[in-house]
Design goal:
The structure holds 2 protein chains of 2 kinds. Chain A is built from 8 helices and no strands. Chain A is mainly α. Chain A has 2 domains: 81 residues; 77 residues, no CATH class. In chain A, helix 2 packs antiparallel against helix 3, helix 5 packs antiparallel against helix 6 and helix 6 packs across helix 7. Chain B has a two-stranded antiparallel ribbon with strand order 1-2. Chain B is mostly helical. Classes of the chains: A mainly alpha, B mainly alpha. Chains A and B meet through helix 2, helix 3, helix 5, helix 6 and helix 7 of A and helix 8, strand 2, helix 9, helix 17 and helix 18 of B.
Amino acid sequence: MTDANSRQRPRARLAPAEALIGLGLLLFAGLTLWQTLSIPVSPMYAQVGPRVFPYITSAGLAVFAVLLLVQAARGGWQPAEEKEVALDWKAVAFVAAGLVANVALIGPLGFSAASTAMCVLVAHGFGSRRPLRDALIGLVLALAAYFGFAKALGVNIGAGLIENLLGG
Amino acid sequence: MDTLAQLANGFAVAFSPNNLLWCLVGTTLGTAIGVLPGLGPALTIALLLPITFQVAPEAAFILFAGIYYGAMYGGSTTSILLNTPGESATIVTALEGNRMARSGRAGAALATSAIGSFVAGTIGTMGVTFLAPIVVSLALLFGPAEYFSLMVLAFVTVSAVLGSSAVRGLASLFLGFYLGMIGIDLQTGQPRFTFGLTELLDGTNVIVVAVGLFAVGETLYVAARRHAGKDEIVPLRGSLYMTREEWSRSWKPWLRGTAIGFPIGAMPAGGAEIPTFLSYVLEKRLSKKPEEFGTVGAIEGVAGPEAANNASAAGVLVPMLTLGLPTSATAAIMLSAFQSYGIQPGPLLLDTQPALVWGLIASLYVANVLLVVLNLPLVGLWVRILKIPAPLLYSGILVFATVGTYGISQSPIDLILLYILGGVGFLMRRFDFPTAPVVIGMILGPMAETEFRRAMTISNGDWTVLFTQPLSAALLALAFAALFGPRLYQLIQAWRGPRPDHVPGDA
């Protein structure tokens, strides 16, 4: 089932966003091929070595990337409903900043502090304008997750200042 | 009658106080997750996978099964009241259910979908009970070559046949293969796709992949479309009791939906979208009041697809429990829970783990009863979940995503990988790539590789064995037909049927 949409619009123009997706996938296929070639093959396993399925995967990704590029050249496939919606990049940037803050802070400051920072940034991205409330809720949620969920599951999350203070 | 004796033992397991509690927790959590649009059972079970280190396998699987069934019930509530399907399997429910709600019959729509889910879920669970031993006896005839071919068939159906585009579905599947192959090759001990990072030698965790695609990706997607217009919650009006007429218009669609949903779910294709849609079309054709479809909302259009949805959810458990073949993202993650316990899924599972399998099946009957109670009288509670403000909901989701991933390894690499996959998930949603094949490919790809190698070892490297063994050849022929058949059909008749709307949330 190729896209019926693309066939309904004859001589459609190249869709740049979709072309980038196809190109990205093609690059990724190249990356997997390069990684496949660097897999050491020991002569002991002559039957089906460790490279066979990686080769198939790289080839498959490359083929589908080319097919996607063809579809992009015929006008793309993105649903009209998606295309019409203008993305709120500012919101995405704040959410992404929250994620980066989490990665950066979880080591030095511990889980709860990092989560609090993340919550403030993410909530701001989603339109909240009450950073103090968000910080408080984030902290309570993180502590609940830390002492409830994490302890119940027996997973060990990086303890930081706050957790140690509370005897985690 | 051996099956009934086994089932009785299963009930003994399921009725232990602890397991009843796990079932209650699972069904409650599952309903809540199902109600929230965009969050699904696959994500929830992935986040709870570390529990497999803590509790007995029976308890973990009863919990997971409760979540799985619960999400199917909860999803319909959101479809009916919000018109945003809570689950991809409840898209069709939204078509008529939301119209019914808007014309003041939300109560009847919720009731027919909950009771229909119960009827279909119970019949479907009976189907699992009696079909599983039969499939096992067939599966014992399978050698590695047959297994490999069966997996190829499953790959084609889950990625190419069910979605809106074969190319995008297969691209997702192959991305899953790639993710599944990262790490040490178990047969030769060689590192693959690790980019020299020691953290990747153990492979990527399915938790990271599922949470990244489904939770982080969903959060980014919703943030980006913040201004895209929101559906309003239809206030719950009208009695939850169905009138005599509504009962008489519901029971046949329930049974027909079950009859469509269960076999399709049980096939190595899986997926609930196709049976729900088929049921909708059938009910529309058979209805005595077709004028209600698309206008004020027809109860048959809710009853049938809801039943089909739950019956196919039960059906999916047949290949999972008997063949070790997952055909949905949720089943794939449940399969990785088996691996986490060191339990080999496959036809021997019923013999080696009878308490686990039959306890699980028995708990499904219990879960269905609990779910009707949870979802009908308590529906007002779930409506409240829909009112959690988005800023808090999504920051909360990201906190739990951190717990689920950073907690298992304490490695920032896993967090970075989680967020990269979140970005990939966002693009996939935006450009209409299905995400479930990534998870299925990741779990099932390495299993297919193992079976292929076994087959080649047995045949001394002779590739033709896949085509000369009749069963294997037939399965491959089916896969071929499934991949290219629809295209030929399209070429022959330039027919184009209506398709379900583009839907958020495939988790």
